[in-house]
Amino acid sequence: MIAINALGTFSLMVGLLTLTPGLDTALVLRTAALGHRRRAWGVVLGIQSGTLIWGVLTSLGVTALLTASHLAYAILRWAGAAYLVWMGGRLLWATWRTSGDQGATGSGAGAEAAVGAGASNTLRGGWRQGIATNLLNPKMGAFYVAVLPQFLPAHASHLAAGVLLTGVHIVLAVLWACALIALAQVLRDRLQRPSMRRLLDRITGTVIAAFGLRLALGE
């Protein structure tokens, strides 16, 4: 199977990737900060479901076909960019639309609308949002294509080894999500203030939309 030093190197790489502030961190933190603990865990499970799919497909060699096909990669890249810009744009628009309303009800309604369909505090709604965000990100697939094969042993099942390595990534990401959700719960009272919620939504919306634009521009 996989050598201990190779497993440690892979764990370090994906650990640093997980800790780097980005789209997943912003989405989980923002959802938990709104007090939607169940939906936040749904987002986490959705993101990690997507990670598992990328890992399995890479182990089977399927994602190599995606990166080799310029058309397929471009279609996925544009679909992902459009989804992220739409989600971030709706979030930003909702904060500006409700900025004149200082009541908690107005701000809360805008935040709910910005998340999109199924914005209630449900595990399923969060899971759909998380897995869509992950699977529509071709850079996630490109990362796995570039990194995972280097750690697959030559004389062992690539699928079993790939699932094991992906499992390490998922465990580290879930532990990081636990810390984010716990932090959001500690700061919940402060983050529930209408002004803070608008600020958080503007930051999150900007991060998501910017990520989508970078994806569209191929950066």
Give structural attributes:
219 residues; mainly alpha; 0% strand
Question: How would you portray this structure in words?
Answer:
The protein has 219 residues and is mainly alpha-helical. It has one domain (29-217). 81% of the residues lie in helices and 0% in strands. It has helices at residues 4-19, 23-33, 37-59, 62-68, 70-97, 104-115, 123-135, 138-147, 158-186, 188-191, 194-217. Helix 3 packs parallel to helix 7. The protein is globular.
The gyration radius over C-alpha positions equals 18 Å
The span between the termini is 36 Å
Structural class per helix/strand content? mainly alpha
pLDDT averaged over residues = 81
Helix content: over 70%
Q: What form results from the Cα inertia axes?
A: globular
Q: Beta-strand level of the residues, as a percent range?
A: under 5%
Low-confidence runs of at least 5 consecutive residues: 102-118
Instruction: Give the SSE string.
Output: HHHHHHHHHHH
Major sheet size, sense and barrel closure: none
The number of domains: 1
What is the strand tally? 0
Total DSSP helices: 11
